[in-house]
Write a structure and sequence with these properties.
single chain; 461 residues; alpha/beta; Rossmann fold; Helicase, Ruva Protein, domain 3; 5-stranded parallel beta sheet; 19 helices; Homeodomain-like_sf; two-component regulatory system; transcription; ATP-binding
Length: 461
């Protein structure tokens, strides 16, 4: 029985030093529905492994240049899951045991029947298919587990939209540009994208491009060769190469110089880097995620950032809203930070009382999530009991201030008291702070106005 050739027919690399055997096996395998490729000798077979990425390798054992066992070893380095079938005319128990120990899928003795070989190849193809399906299933399970247990914390609509976008782009290899103010969690989102990607089992490298001078930054990014500059006493692998098959996160990409931007553009376009002082490039298979708190389009207009690099980075844009625009996330973030602090300190988790939580909700958080975390760490240290009150928070958080009539913060359902307070504040401002005229405008007695101001704690208005 023969099988029709299909788009997903198994690709078989046949390695032998006898042309007649290569020709006959190529005809046989093509007739039986496989996609055969041939290599004359072990050396040529090893060279073709990386380019062809075959589903199955069928190789002779005894060849004058490179042995079948060496082909087996090379195949396993390129793809640990590829089934390798060894053929030999001089089979011994010892050689069979060695082949199995080296990871061979099967060991067949020449001469063999065609139907016997085809049956072995079909089992190898099925084995390969099952291994691939199992790997996909494992990755999906890991993604779901990470999605459930490591999803960045937040419940606001704007934050959930960010996470949905991150989850959509994670399985791809697209470059992602993450924007947002300092402290909004750009690296957290970058790590989340990496964790949900097919590269999750490989490295996640990151660098803050604004923290290093240009010469040192280029060495960290691309590596250098010994003697390329003073202090280069040995070769150094750059982070692009170290993140090969993984993810490289370039934080504060807007801080890079034009010279570095040119080299970054080459790395993204050509998928290769040239170490400092080297003359040959190094190929890299690295997914790049970048982040900035700058407006890069404005930087382009001012000549501070290359437009071609921006468009190369901005394949997928993910913008993180500031914390003041997602106040609904403050309680759950605070709960998470306090729980983590308790775990690290091996003590009972502390809780916020109503006054402390109100202060957190009312503050504008210019430093965003990072500032919130630091404020709660301070509160945990200063609080003697298990309940955190407002006086344990930094003064800037608890200091009373007049709320502006227009704010960047996403609107929440206001209470009647909040509406009344805002209206009184507006009238007072219009009357230049004169409480008697304000009371007249409000249609209430001055004493009533004073009582309301005293209740609100806004006597200074």
């Amino acid at each position: 029985m023969t099988y029709a050739l299909s788009d997903d027919a198994p690709r078989v690399l046949i390695v032998d030093d006898e042309t007649s055997i290569l020709d006959s096996l190529r005809i046989l395998l093509k007739t039986e529905g496989f996609v055969p490729f041939t290599a004359h000798g072990g050396r040529q077979g090893v060279e073709q492994l990386q380019e062809l990425r075959p589903d199955i390798v069928l190789t002779d054992v005894r060849m004058p240049d490179v042995s079948g066992v060496q082909v087996l070893s090379a195949a396993r380095q390129v793809d640990p899951d590829v089934p390798v079938i060894l053929m030999t005319a001089q089979a011994t128990l010892q050689s069979a045991v060695q082949a199995v120990n080296e990871g061979a899928f099967y060991y067949i003795q020449k001469p063999f029947r065609n139907d016997e070989l085809v049956a072995i190849l079909r089992r190898a193809a099925e084995h390969r298919k099952l291994r691939a399906e199992n790997q996909v299933l494992k990755q999906e399970i890991r993604r779901r587990e990470r999605n459930a247990s490591q999803r960045p914390i937040g419940r606001s609509k704007s934050w959930l939209e960010v996470l949905r976008l991150a989850e959509t782009v994670a399985p791809t290899d697209s470059t992602v540009l993450i924007t947002g103010e300092s402290g909004t969690g750009k690296e957290v989102v970058a790590r989340y994208i990496h964790d949900l990607s097919a590269r999750t089992d490989n490295g996640f490298m990151s660098i803050n491009c604004g923290a290093l001078p240009e010469s040192l930054l280029e060495s960290e990014l691309f590596g250098h060769v010994k003697g390329s500059f003073t202090g280069a006493v040995k070769d150094k692998t750059g982070l692009f190469a170290a993140a090969n098959h993984g993810t490289f996160f370039l934080d504060e990409i807007g801080e890079t110089t034009p010279s570095t931007q040119v080299k970054l553009l080459r790395a993204l376009q050509q998928r290769e880097v040239i170490p400092v002082g080297a003359t040959e490039s190094v190929s890299v298979d690295t997914r790049v995620l970048a982040a900035t708190n700058r407006d890069l389009e404005e930087e382009i207009k001012r000549g501070g950032f290359r437009a071609d690099l921006f468009y190369r980075l901005n394949v997928i844009a993910v913008h993180l809203p500031p914390l003041r625009q997602r106040a609904d996330d403050i309680p759950v973030l605070a709960e998470s930070f306090l729980a983590r602090s308790a775990t690290l300190r091996h003590e009972e988790q502390k809780v916020l009382n109503e006054g402390a939580l109100d202060a957190l909700m009312a503050y504008g958080w210019p430093g965003n999530v990072r500032e919130l975390e630091n404020a709660l760490e301070r509160a945990v240290i200063l609080c003697s009991g298990n309940t955190i009150s407002a006086d344990a928070l930094p003064e800037r958080v608890t200091a009373r201030r007049a709320e502006p009539l227009v704010s960047e913060r996403a609107p929440v359902s206001p209470t009647l008291e909040a509406i009344e307070r805002a209206y009184i504040q507006w009238v007072l401002q219009n009357e230049g702070g004169n409480k008697s005229r304000a009371a007249d405008m409000l249609g209430i007695d001055p004493s009533t106005l004073y009582r309301k101001l005293a209740r609100y704690g806004d006597a200074a208005l």
